[in-house]
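Incident log, support desk, overnight shift.

02:14 A customer reports that sequence design results differ from what the structure should imply. Their input is reproduced verbatim below. On-call engineer (initials T.W.) acknowledged and began investigating.
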């Protein structure tokens, strides 16, 4: 027997029973983006490795151990994108979108990280990324939070999520804070795990982002960056909080929130849930005012976030969201005999032309009436149209109601479109 192929661990197939829910969610996200004036940008999924190293940071989990990187035939080092912000900034600079301009951009698609696969954590996963360029004030930070809150409301999960916010200040105050942190962790060196020891000198703030629960209590005692903020960042943070309060958004100021990527400054935020175990962050972002310049563009303030679609779908499992997915046919067309088969094709095309929103499946592959009715029932269709030689001779079709106790009715073929439109409210 030949060995069967299997998908790569942590990289999932999405079967038809799941794609309808994904399409519904993606549709909602697209219209949400329009509501707030964001435009879609699509970037390649492969970039130069150095782009991610320079933006996300050399001493981060992502760059140190999670990237899929290889040397291309021309010796270029290439990487499957682990996130979208770096590519979006690269594209923005490359096409002159960020030079003295304001841009509100979004993208959606697969990201790749070589993590240990588990529920809510995959090696190919999907994100919606939202980025605003050229806006300095906290109003845009707040609007992005409001936009996500609107989504939680629309899909009915607002009671299951909590907003955490923090400020990372500017690079000067972070440099001073870095010294304080190194001093604190050196005093407690015996309690550091291997990763944290390595990061102690190279990137001590990453220690605060450790997922090792044994280090939690030490991290909670560490000096807090928000007690050492520069004046302008403090003002920005105060205005952010005021606006969130005015908008009625509840939040927790979480001084341990630092995010796993190096490019952030000032505002950072995460929407968290306790319904998904350890994979509790469903949406995360913040400001990255220095990144565009760092990647060779004109200095451009920016704020953005990424949402993990798998985790949102997981939160929605079993909810009303999965009812009414518009994926089943309205009509299953049953036909028996050669004349009826010919007529069925013509009639189906006519109906599809007249009613573009009609979902119509024609029986293929033959079978007697009993077999075809079984298939009609399994398809989930509401109505069966029945065409036999008799019906063809009389110029009619029989309509059977598959989900209601109603008498079968005869309808003139020429009036079928109007009849169906009326029945299905199309
Ligand atoms: P985590 O702390 O869970 O590792 P992160 O800080 O690495 O997340 P980001 O890089 O901020 O995550 O990505 C934004 C969002 O993308 C996360 O909040 C999460 O919802 C989702 N996400 C990140 N990594 C994965 C993954 N491996 N599988 C599924 N979703 C993911
Ligand atoms: Mg991570």
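02:41 Re-run completed on a clean worker. Output:
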């Amino acid at each position: 027997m030949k060995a069967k192929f299997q998908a790569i661990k942590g990289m999932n197939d999405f079967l038809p029973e799941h794609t309808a829910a994904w399409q519904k969610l993606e549709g909602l996200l697209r219209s949400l983006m329009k509501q707030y004036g964001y435009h879609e940008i699509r970037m390649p999924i492969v970039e130069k490795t150095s782009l991610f190293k320079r933006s996300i940071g050399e001493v981060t989990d992502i760059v140190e151990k999670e990237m899929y990187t290889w040397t291309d035939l021309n010796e270029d080092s290439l990487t499957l994108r682990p996130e979208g912000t770096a590519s979006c900034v690269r594209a923005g600079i490359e096409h002159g979108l960020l030079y003295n301009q304001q841009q509100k951009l979004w993208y959606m698609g697969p990201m790749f990280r070589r993590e240990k696969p588990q529920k809510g954590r995959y090696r190919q996963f999907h994100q919606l990324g939202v980025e605003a360029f050229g806006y300095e004030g906290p109003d845009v930070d707040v609007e992005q939070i409001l936009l996500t809150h609107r989504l939680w409301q629309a899909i009915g999960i607002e009671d299951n999520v909590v907003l955490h916010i923090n400020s990372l200040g500017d690079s000067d105050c972070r440099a001073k804070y870095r010294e304080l942190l190194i001093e604190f962790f050196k005093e407690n060196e015996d309690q550091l795990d291997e990763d944290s020891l390595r990061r102690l000198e190279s990137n001590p703030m990453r220690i605060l982002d450790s997922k090792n629960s044994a280090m939690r209590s030490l991290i909670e005692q560490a000096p807090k960056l928000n007690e050492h903020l520069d004046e302008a960042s403090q003002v920005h943070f105060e205005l952010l909080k005021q606006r969130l309060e005015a908008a009625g958004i509840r939040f927790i100021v979480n001084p341990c929130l630092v995010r796993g990527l190096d490019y952030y400054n000032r505002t950072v935020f995460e929407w968290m849930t306790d319904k998904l175990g350890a994979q509790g962050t469903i949406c995360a972002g913040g400001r990255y005012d220095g990144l565009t310049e760092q990647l060779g563009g004109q200095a451009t303030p920016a704020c953005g976030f990424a949402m993990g679609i798998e985790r949102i779908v997981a939160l929605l499992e079993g909810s009303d969201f999965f009812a009414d997915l518009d994926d089943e046919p309205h009509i299953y067309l049953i036909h028996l005999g050669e004349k009826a088969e010919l007529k069925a094709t013509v009639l189906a095309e006519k109906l599809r032309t007249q009613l573009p929103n009609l979902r119509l499946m024609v029986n293929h592959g033959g079978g007697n009436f009993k077999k075809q009715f079984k298939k009609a029932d399994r398809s989930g269709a509401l109505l069966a149209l029945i065409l036999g030689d008799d019906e063809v001779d009389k110029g009619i079709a029989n309509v059977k109601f598959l989900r209601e106790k109603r008498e079968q009715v005869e309808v003139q073929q020429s009036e079928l479109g109007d009849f169906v439109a009326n029945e299905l409210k199309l």
